[in-house]
Amino acid sequence: MEWISKSNVLIVGLGLMGGSYAKGLKRLGFRVTALARRRETVDYALEHGIIDAGSDSIDPKLIGEADAVVFALYPGVFKEWIRDNQKYLKPGARLTDVTGVKRCIVYDIQAMLRPDVEFIAAHPMAGREVYGVENSDERIFFNANYIVTPTDKNTPEAIEWCKDLGRILGFRKVSVLSPEEHDEMIGFLSQLTHCIAVSLMTCSDNRHLVDYTGDSFRDLTRIARINDAMWSELFLLNRDDLLKQMDLFISEFGEMRRLLAEGDAEGLREKMRLSTERRAYFNK
Amino acid sequence: MEWISKSNVLIVGLGLMGGSYAKGLKRLGFRVTALARRRETVDYALEHGIIDAGSDSIDPKLIGEADAVVFALYPGVFKEWIRDNQKYLKPGARLTDVTGVKRCIVYDIQAMLRPDVEFIAAHPMAGREVYGVENSDERIFFNANYIVTPTDKNTPEAIEWCKDLGRILGFRKVSVLSPEEHDEMIGFLSQLTHCIAVSLMTCSDNRHLVDYTGDSFRDLTRIARINDAMWSELFLLNRDDLLKQMDLFISEFGEMRRLLAEGDAEGLREKMRLSTERRAYFNK
Lengths: 284, 284
Description:
2 copies of one chain form a homodimer.
Chain A: H1 2-6, E1 8-12, H2 16-28, E2 31-35, H3 39-47, E3 53-55, H4 60-65, E4 68-71, H5 75-85, E5 94-97, H6 103-112, E6 118-119, E7 122-125, E8 145-148, H7 156-168, E9 173-176, H8 179-202, H9 215-221, H10 228-237, H11 239-261, H12 265-281
Parallel strand pairs in A: 1-2, 1-4, 2-3, 4-5, 5-6, 8-9
Antiparallel strand pairs in A: 7-8
Helix pairs in contact in A: 5-6, 8-11
């Protein structure tokens, strides 16, 4: 692990996820620097020993020192950043990210990038319902999945490096998917579930039911507390996949409604047995 | 609490819920007896000190001794039991239940019941994803809600007795609702959520996604492992209320789909903000 003590990692965007990366990387012994939008964020991170150096403006020196850069930005901002600031990157630098959608990001970034640096995309599937560096916590990675989404443009070395990054940060499982596979998977497992949770909260004014609420409803709506700026952007960037998943769900839910309306007990039971059988796999 | 040591409570139906009642009532000092369908259930409960006496057939003596009877049966079986066996009940006995739907049960039972016994309905909103007396556990009540659903036929004394029963079993909150209010509430909070969870599991063969599954998907589908016999019966008995709730959800989910398809970021964000605001109430 010689490379650790020699490496400077720059985090661009110091929110919940960027802050958690910073804490995890500091624990491992890296020199960690950061760029953030707000001065208070940088000050907080410096005061709490989360980073070694940081700036609230584009600092060519910090950028130029970094052997690796982790982008923890909203998708749109990420592309702008590369366009405007890639000139400051150190030759040979490795770039990765934490973005929750991939097709719309990975190819564009790789196409515009200087040939002497490499972008290898990743999605750490971890999070909390709170925001900001103040709430960052590297332990959110320990029971989570980490997906690397390489393209033809990536070298085997960079792919392996990116997988190692996930491993040393403590992720439970590190996998490789194409950007397309990733976006389909995330459309179903994450975006569709968030759409459902939001709809369940907004479909009627249910606040008077708070006294009767049991675990089922709480479980299904925990993720209904949602960062509207980030999630609306992620939904729209993955629109076609998400619409496809929503349509599958609408069709199946409509089928349940039909069975119920027709009083088809055996049809309902069949759905429930299939559901029970499938769900058992997810408890392994 | 003089009445505890003097009281015989009969549990009819010794599954997860009946067994949990038995354990809780034994802990409190009641004499607890039970009727179960299978001999092995009775033997297990006797061997483990869960009940003081029990039978796998209709035992007029056990029934006639009981000051209170708790019915932990499926709804259809419950009505049959009353029709066939109410003649054995002790005059002045108090009956209660654990049934998850109320309108279709409470009025029918009260209409057919002898005038010298009283049925006061209740719904302990507790459960587990496992079944049978072997998995019963009175601690499932400790963080749960307990709803009493009286009608005009109930006396203030029986209502108070039934609320006390919930309190001494350790429920977190004891409330009173009409059978109609109860069924509307349960249609939304419990039955709709189970329909959603089942549909999410059955809408596509998603087993290959198990490696990428995060907390959101697991949370939304935990209740997709479902007792198909019981839940299909509960759904059908509350069909009109559940259909109404499903339609509200379908309409709202369709609205989310429309906003996404039209690329209406601000519309999506508005839904997410409302959802976030409402969900905050449920964390109190």
